[in-house]
Each structure stands twice: as structure tokens, then as C-alpha cells.
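Figure 2 data, in text form.
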Amino acid sequence: MIESMNLVILIASILVVVAVFTSLVSFRVGAPLLLVFLFVGLGAGEDGIGGIMFDNAPLAYFIGSIALALILFDSGFETQLRTLKIAAAPSLVLATIGVMITTFVIGGVTWLVLDVPWLVALLFGAIVSSTDAAAVFFLLRVGGINLRDRTRSTLEVESGSNDPMAVFLTISLVELIILGGGDNIAVELLQRFILQIGLGTVFGVAGGYALVQMINRVKLEPGLVPIITMACALALFGATSILGGSGFLAVYVAGLFAGNSKMHMSVGVRRFQHVTTWLAQIAMFVTLGLLATPSEFGAVIVPGVILALVLVFVARPVAVWLCLMFFNFSRNDTAFISWVGLRGAVSILLAIVPMVEGIPEGQLLFNTAFIVVITSLLLQGWTIRRVAKWLGIIVPPRHGPVDRIDLELPGNANQEIVVYRVHEASAVATGQRIPRWARPSLILRDGASLRPHSAGHIQAGDQVYIITPPRHVELLDQLFAGPAEGANDIDLFGDFSFPPDTHIADIGRLYGFAVDEDDAELTVADILKRDLSGDVELGDRVPYGTVELIVRRTDDEHGVIEVGLAVEQQKAKPKRRIPIFQSRAELLEIWKDWQKRKRAEKNAALTAGTPATALPTDDHDSGSDDELTGDPSENPVTDPDQDANPDPDHLSSPSDPSAPDDNSADAAKTPAPTAAKDDADTSSTTKAPGKKA
């Protein structure tokens, strides 16, 4: 028995070591690291070179649940409140309505492809309906892709909050399959959903508050604070789940509350959680890989790939578009959000539930879900950076690389120590003064410790210890960072720069382009905010007339500080415009244009159908008045106000001073319905310069 335990410890340690070292290969070739961990488990399993027999589905579900709870707690802990504010509404809609839309779309296709009962097909849709928090957070935070704050925040909050909905749907459908339907199924499901979400939210807030108060009031050894934090998070997960709430939602909300509160030893807690999160990801993916049997994949690989492609190219885009069309996301941002719908360990973990509960199709659903996850990680995870670059949504970084270490001050002080290594091209190295609210306490130079007042000017390579409030650390980063990539790139930030309060009319006079009357009193900052729907980011471009306005610098609240001007628009590589994912405003504009065209066509048809306005014959144009003096019965007049037999002499009679001459009379009787239609079409499609198409 003891030897068997030692063997398990040895094998588990070797798997962790192998997973860690394979990460080096992952970073070199650009493969999703979590996919590498999954392949390590597959390689060590019964069909791999390891030959390890592992078929304990309940144990795998237990390990995966603990790991996912730790990952979600850390995800909430690292999510700033500012991130939640700008993305709460769209991400929560995606996490609820989006998950349900995906469930029904994939459920319908599963019913056709796998030929299973309708409830089982819906169960598979619920299993793969949520994005994977571990995969999304890893690719966005570790992958180094610099996105717009709103887009990044939406993806992060969605991935952290949509798991409870998927878990609820999966467990509810499993119970329906086992117990059969009842008369009040919809009411029971709604009550259970409200209970899970309500208890999860309430217990999460209460648990986060209790955790912060306990750590701040009880004097513990610094090394014990991260451990008790992790233990409290897992205890909250278990207690909430036992009482009928969503444990995953509770730990995410608790982490969100604790991470945005003043908590003692928060720096140490963050470091510890980074370690435990990595270990949890390795343990979860390797365990799920061990549970799978690749030799059984052959029977489901074709339907699995079909379902994965439908999920990637149909279900996820439709769900994202329907959920985000009311939030003024650009088409490219919506397209990217739909592409970053990675499926990962959560889907495999939920696929274990039907196996544990003894549903006959459980193994089929597990193997198919595994194929879907592998396809998603290969297709989406491997191309996420390329797609972001192709869509043109990568924004320049606010500042260059920063070499910084955070240190914790003892007690409950509202200050912390940050240590910077001075970059040779940073602002402080070139003479910029450190603000008064930041107090340098020590400078290390060439191995010697110097007091700030005796060290002289700060030099490149110095290590500067600064005491500062935590909220000002990001401002200090800008002083000690190196230059941002492309900071002086003319193609990226324009030929010239000017203040944001400059009027667009002044720029129009200077560069010789017309300004719309409604824009004459607007500043360039107003134009940028209007055309970007208030979501302004560094590097955003808005064409106006013959120039392009470029956001060159912003503050922490996304206010415009400096605007660049590109005189030749062709310098900037045009952003691809996706022909789908129209927003509500764009759909409304399309509807209005269609109505205008239909009205113009109707008016043109009515005008063309009136004989009094028909074009005159060639004989009349040549000067013959036979048409005018012929039998009135041959030339019926439908307009009672129109003279049925106009006389040229009468038209030019002095007694009628308002009568036009012959030429103008002919012109008056000669309509141009085609031109009228063209004008209507043109008026419906022409926009003032500078306004979004």
C-alpha cells in the first residue's frame, strides 16, 4: 500500500515536471499552453507511452472542481473594479443569454449529427456552452495581446461568470433525463436558477467581506495568510454548493470583492495564487487527459469536428452578435469576441457529469466534448493573435516594459514599496522629476546603497525604492518604463499633434476640407468621442475630410489628452470591415435607408405613371403642334387642373403674368423620374465627412 502511494507521488511529480518543461516548447512554437498540458495527460494515459490506467470519473470531477474553484477565485481577485464597470452589462448578457443561445443551437445540430434524444442533445449543448476561464485568462494575460479595455474586460468577465450558467443547465438537464419531465418543469428550472445565482452572489459578497475583515483584524504569520485565503475560498465553494447555490459564482464574486478591497498581505496573496493557479491548471488538464481514451475517438471524430466547427463559426458568432448588438461594439470587436470563445477544461469537466450519473450516452458525450475542446484550442487558441492583428484591434501599449517589484509594508498601512530598475530611455532617466506623493527611500547603484538626497540624479540601471499609495503605482510605471513600441511611429500616431480642444473647423480651414455645419462648433475630442461611441482608446483613428484624427494619448479614464493628425490617410493601413455583426445603430440606419429607397421608388413610379407628366413626342419637340391641336379624345387629360388643349399663344399671353415662355413650359411638362430616383438614392447614402459609415 505504501509503495503504491509512493508510486502515485512519483508519477504525479513527473507529470508536473514534464508539463512545466513542455511549456518552453509551447512558448517557442506559439501553441496554447493548456493544450500542451492536455496532451501530456493523453500521452501518459492508457493509450499513450505512459500506459497509466485511470478511469475514475468521480475523482477526476473532484480534482477538476477544486482546480476550477481556485482558478475562478484568482480570476476575480485579479479583476479590477474599473474593468467590471466598463464590461459588466455586455459580459453578463453573454454569460446568461449567450450561453442559452449556444445551448439550443448546438443542441439542434447534435440531435441531427449524433442521433440522440432531444434532451441528451440539449445536454451536450449545455456542456460546451461556456467559454473556459483558464484558457481565456491565460491567452489574454500571458499571451501579451494588447486589446481595447472594453473588449478585454468583456472577455475576462464573461469567461469568469458564464460557468455557473453552464453548470446549472448541465445538472438540470441531467436530472430531467434521469427523473423524466414533470408538469412544472419550466417553473422548477427558473426557481432553481434564481436560487443558484442568488445564493452564489450573496454568499460570494458575504464571504469576500468576511475574508477581508478576518485577515485585516487577526494577526497571522505572513506565510499563513495566503494559505488561509485559499482554504476560505474552497470552504465558501463547498458551503454554497451544499446549500443549493452556485459555488463557482460564489468564489468568483468573493475574489472580486477581496481583490478590490484594502487587504493585508495582498501582494503575498497574489504571488501565492499565481503559483496555485498554475498548479491547478496543470492538475486539471493532465487529469482530464488521463481520463480520456484516445482509441475511442475514432468513432466520434467526424461528428465532433462538425460540432466544433458549428460552434466556432455559427453558434458562438450568432450568440455574441445577438447579445452585443445593443452595446455599440464595433464589428471587428464583436468578431474578435466571437472568435475568443475557447472551450477548455470546463467543458470536459461538465462532460464527466453524465458519466458519473450513469446516463447511457455519457461516454459518447464525453468523447465528443473532448474532440470539440481539442479542435477549439487548436483552431482558436493558435490563431488568436493573428486574428486580432488581421482585424486591426490591437492597440498600442500605454507605456513600454517596466522592471518592477512590489513589497508589502508591515501592518495595515495604506502605502506600499515598489522597486524600479530605471530604463535608460525612461522619463526619470532623462530628467523627469518624481512626483511629491511618491517618496524615494533608497537607491541601489553599482552594488552600493545610497540615500536619495545624496545619490544625485537618477541614472539608468539604478534600483529605486519608492513608498507610494497603491493607486498611484500605474502612474509611476509610466515614469520608469521604457518607450512604448511605436511611440514615435508617424504611421501609427500621425504627422503632427495638437490639443484635444482644437476646433475641427480650424483644422478644416488649415487643410482645406469642408466641415459639416453641425460639426462647426465641435472640438476634435468631441468628434472622436462621437464617432467612437465614447469608447476611446490609444491609437484609435477617425477619418474626417482629407485627414485622419488619431488618439495619441489618454488618461486613466480614457479621456483624450493629445490628438495626432495624419495628413495622408493612405499611410495608415485600413482596418478590415467585417460584413456581418452590425450593431443596433447600424441595423437601424440600414432600415432607414431601405425605407427611403422604397419611398423614392414609389414616388418615381407614381410620377412616371401620370400622362400629364409624360415626355413629349419628337414631333412636338421639332416644332409641330399637331399633337396640341388634335382631337382631345385622343389625348385624354387626367389632371383636372391641367388645360387639356394648351395654346402656345395662351401660354405666352400678357394677361397671365405668371405663365412661362415656350421653352420653360416644355421643361415644366418634362419630368425626370429617373433623375429623381437617383437623387433620392444619393441622398440616402451620402454622409457628411467624418461621420461613421
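Caption note: The mean pLDDT is 80.
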